[in-house]
Amino acid sequence: MCHQCVIEGVKKTMLSRRALFTGAAATGVAGVAAGLAPARPALAQTGGRVVDLTHTYDSDFPTFDGEPGILTEEAVNFEESGYQLLKLTLFEHTGTHIDAPLHFSADGASVDELEPQNLVCPLCIIDITAKAADDANATVEAEDVEAWVSENGAFPAGALVAMRSGWAAKVGDPSFRNDEAGGLAFPGFATSATDLLAEQGVLAIGVDTLSLDPGNSADFAVHYSWLPGGRYGIEGLNNLEELPATGATIFVGAPKHRGGTGGPARVLAVI
Amino acid sequence: MCHQCVIEGVKKTMLSRRALFTGAAATGVAGVAAGLAPARPALAQTGGRVVDLTHTYDSDFPTFDGEPGILTEEAVNFEESGYQLLKLTLFEHTGTHIDAPLHFSADGASVDELEPQNLVCPLCIIDITAKAADDANATVEAEDVEAWVSENGAFPAGALVAMRSGWAAKVGDPSFRNDEAGGLAFPGFATSATDLLAEQGVLAIGVDTLSLDPGNSADFAVHYSWLPGGRYGIEGLNNLEELPATGATIFVGAPKHRGGTGGPARVLAVI
Fold it and tell me: What's the predicted TM-score (pTM) here?
């Protein structure tokens, strides 16, 4: 049975099961008609606790290429001027940041061209911490997606699906980026999973590591298949362990400099 | 009657009027007990339309000091490397951006130290477009705050109060920053208003101009009284005319570089 068939089967099962709930009131969710994947559930399910999915970053924050991602210098001094501000020199793909389609395509959407509506999404989290503990280059596979759907139901329309590998806790340690031999080593998505997510109408993916692809990827297959399709990705997520597998809403505070390929983003979740 | 007394009087009136609504269902707002200023209404009142309050910015975007706020250069070329990214050189207070307390104090909170919970706020908009059309340096005064409360009720707890002056539409024109004599000229807040807002528990203020203080301010009185108190401000808001005076939720995607005094922010509202 193909992946798509499994998902469709699950959808049907969930639909008949959920049809028992005939009104939004039964689930405490206002304004959402009963059913499987409401058009833009976004905020309706939220209650108000904010979880910051963003790392604080500075020139010591690990980067994919190993070079400092940001340098700061004082531009105005408080003692001299009565106020203060910094000049920042930064490479776009630093800290918790967004990859716009343009990052891996010649003419995809730049970060300022993303639809604002697509920066507020239902957040779904696929937990692979168990296999990542055994394999630093573990990936989210199609089977992990199917297992998630079996347990949680279909992805809400316009969802952002994040990989939780447990890597955020390593951010101050060399093992965030490298294995003991010094090679890049961290979990990511496999295309078997992202192809399935694209079929399911998922809008964006996120990881708690340095890259959408695993550290040992030779071909950036996920970057090349996901981003040019007009979808975006978030790298370097923090605090995913504070959230449920589904039910939170994610706000992607993507930068809006003209023509950008991405950049540091403030990412918040509300649950 | 002092400003505070007026506000308290209005609160009492509104409370007795609102007591008629004895359940959240009456207003279509889930999870919020009836009353005046619920603890953190934030998302409960939202329905799902996202309004982008952020300008796209580049080196031509107007700045307070008149110098380019951002310079971009290609760091990786797509034809050569199969992907691309930019190096950015920017001054923190550029584009639609946040002023952290540290911007106008020696040791206030830096932008990475702001409480995430305080970046998701009920948004209240005070419209002074009529008087700003007659006076480029018009300010939001205590009387404007009182008039807003008379019409809309008390500010929700933890609100962000934004001035709408109509200035966002001028952003490509010299009149966004200057009068015909070349002096700085744009609307802002007066301390008579911000003192009252602080008393009311308002958490942050925002403007659709280059500064929290009006262009002709000689002393930055609002910056010096508002920010060191631990509150923050947003400058350069866009699209406020698409939102009601109250009822939207604002998400302030503040940057999170360590020790920052502020910086470009992605600001979204959901209504």
Answer: 0.87
